[in-house]
Amino acid sequence: MSQLKEKTPLLEKLKNKYRLTISNxxxxxEVLSIRLSRLNVFTVTGIFSILLIALVxxxxxxxxxxxxxxxxxxxxxxxxxxxxxVLVDSLIIELNKRDQFFQGIRNVVSGNDFDNVSQNANxxxxxxxxxxxxxxxxxxxxxxxxEHEEDEKYNLTLEDAPKSKGLSNIHFFAPIKGMVSNHFDxxxxxxxxxxxxxxxxxxxxxxxxxxxFSEWTLNTGYVIQIQHANDLLSxxxxxxxxxxxxxxxxxxxxxxxxxxxxxxxxxxxxxxxELWHNGRPLNPEDYIKF
Length: 290
Description:
This protein is α+β, with helices and mostly antiparallel strands. It is 31% helix and 25% strand. The longest helix has 36 residues, at 75-110.
C-alpha cells in the first residue's frame, strides 16, 4: 500500500490540467487559451518526434537527398560499380574458357590425355541411355590407322618434283594438310602457297631449326619465320596464335602456330606458306605434299 501511495502523486501530477494563456500585452485581452497536462505534452511530443524521424528516413531513402550524405556514392558511381561488377564476372568466365582452351591445345601438342581439363556439365551427355556407352576399335579401323600413319611417315615429299641444288635429299614435313587455294606465282609476286584449313588447326615446322621472327604484322597478321640448315627459311603467315617465340629451337613436325585469319591481306582461314633458299623463293609444292 505504501508503494501505491508513493506512485499516486506522480500519476496525478501528470494528469493535472494546466492552462496556457496568450494575452495582448497592451490590453490584457486573452488571445489564446489552451488546456494542457504533462501527459498530453509528453504524448504529443513523442508522436511528433516519431513522425519526424520516419519522414526524414523516407526522404533520405527514396529521394536524391541521400547523395548529399558524406561517403554515400552518387548515381553515376553506383552505375559504374554495377557495370564493373558485371564486366569482371564476364572477364573471369572468358579467362576460364581461355585457360581450358590453351590446356586442350597443350594436351594435343604434347600427346597427353584430357583428364586435367575441366568440362562444363551442360556440355556432357546426361541421357541415362548413353551412360554406359563404350567404344571399341574394329579391325578395319586399326588397318586404316596403320595405313595412314605409314603414309605420313614415308610420303612427306613429292618424289618426282624438281629439286633445287642441295635440297634433293631433304624430306620436308608438311606444315598442314589441306586444299591449296592459291599457288606459287613469282610473276604476281605471290611467293608462297595458300592452304585452306580449319580455324585453330595445328601448324607444324617443316624442318628442325631456330625461330628468328614471331610477331604480329598489320598486313599478314601473326607471322612466324624459322631458319633451317642449308640456308633454308620457312615463313608461316595469317596465324590465329603463335606457339613459339624468337630464339626457340623447334623440331621437324613440332607445333609452332594455329591456323587463322589474321591480317589485312587475308580472305578467310588459311595458311600462307613460303619457302626460301639462299634468298630465293621456292615453289613449296615442288618439295612438300599438302
